[in-house]
Write a structure and sequence with these properties.
Length: 197
């Protein structure tokens, strides 16, 4: 069974992934896979430099701050970056999931943009993590040192939470404590285990 973990920025999906990993499951991380592709795939590098400029790479390293500032400047820019990175990323996720699937009956992938990148097409189920907007903003401020304006700007490039809830198979509401989040995550792990029997 291939399960996606998704949620908007600051909802706590990475924390859910960590809980799942602690319970012995493999969780692939789409962000890390995308960064690896942006760093290693020469054709992707060429397209990024051609669209966003030479500063996209500094000392042969991916300049994530620069790329984020360019990509999040407009809907057109984020769509261009996504059109370059998402197809090879989905291909790589599928390849890695199939490798892990030979060893385990359940494989997870964490991806903020599961629907936007059409990763859901290679999954059996999607688990959505949601949280109220104020909690999300506070978490991101602490974690990423971004202003509220920058955070809201990034949020607007993602599918709204209520739309994702209609698309997802399962939802965890993360509006309480970490202990509550852990209990809810473990409950879903039990459900997934019964589904493969």
């Amino acid at each position: 069974m291939k399960i996606g973990i998704t949620g908007g920025i600051g909802t706590g999906k990475s924390h859910v992934s960590k809980i799942i990993e602690k319970n012995g499951y493999v969780v692939l991380n789409a962000d890390n896979i995308a960064k690896q592709i942006m760093f290693e795939d020469e054709s992707v590098k060429e397209l990024i430099i051609s669209e966003f400029g030479e500063k996209s790479y500094c000392d042969d390293k991916l300049n994530t701050i620069y790329i984020a500032s360019k990509a999040f400047s407009s809907v057109q820019s984020i769509n261009i970056l996504n059109s370059i990175v998402h197809p090879p990323m989905v291909e790589k996720i599928n390849e890695l999931m199939n490798i892990e699937f030979k060893k385990s009956k359940i494989v997870f992938v964490e991806a903020a943009l599961i629907y936007e990148a059409e990763v859901d097409g290679i999954l059996d189920y999607v688990l959505l993590v949601t949280s109220n907007e104020n909690s999300r903003i506070e978490r991101i401020k602490k974690r990423d040192n971004l202003s509220e304006i920058e955070i809201r700007k990034r949020m607007q490039f993602q599918i709204p939470e209520n739309e994702k809830e209609n698309l997802a198979d399962f939802t965890i509401k993360n509006n309480s404590t970490l202990l509550d989040l852990e209990m809810k995550t473990k409950m879903f792990l039990s459900i997934f285990q019964t589904m493969i029997k």
